[in-house]
Amino acid sequence: MVLVMLTINMLPTLNAILNGTSAILLITGYLLIRRGRRSAHRLCMLGAFGVSTLFLISYLVYHYHHGSTRFMGQGWLRPVYFAILGSHTVLAAIIVPLVLVTLSRALRHRFERHKAIARWTLPLWLYVSVTGVVVYLMLYQLG
User: Fold this and answer.
1) How many structural domains does the chain have?
2) For residue 17, what pLDDT is reported?
3) Which helix (H) or strand (E) element contains residue 98?
4) Quick one: pLDDT band at residue 141, thresholds 50, 70, 90?
5) 36, CA 20 to 30 Å: which among 2, 55, 58, 119?
6) Four-point Cα dihedral 19, 128, 25, 66, nearest 10
7) Is 96 a member of any domain?
């Protein structure tokens, strides 16, 4: 058995993987509920919540130990990066309570109220997950 030890420098890549996984689970969960497959939808959405929780923990650990990473890109890429980062950051703060309320309503079988807020939560959560991957790519692969 091979043990892989994560170092602080590996966490941004892990975070991008977790964000990408969350996006895939969110899309899959949406498609499943549209097909009436409630149990499978529930598993995907709980999985997305779990993966997003792991992301948040990993993100906080990384920034506690490493601090900020400066974007080194230049030219037209710089304002694009900061526009994406700004919208991602604002929506990431907003999405946490939205996800908690949406999940709470579903777990308490208040499906009409769940559905009403999920219409807002899903696209915002998906945007935050996808732009998290985009920010990673721009910061660590392009910048």
Assistant:
1) 1
2) 98
3) helix 77-107
4) confident
5) 55
6) 20
7) yes
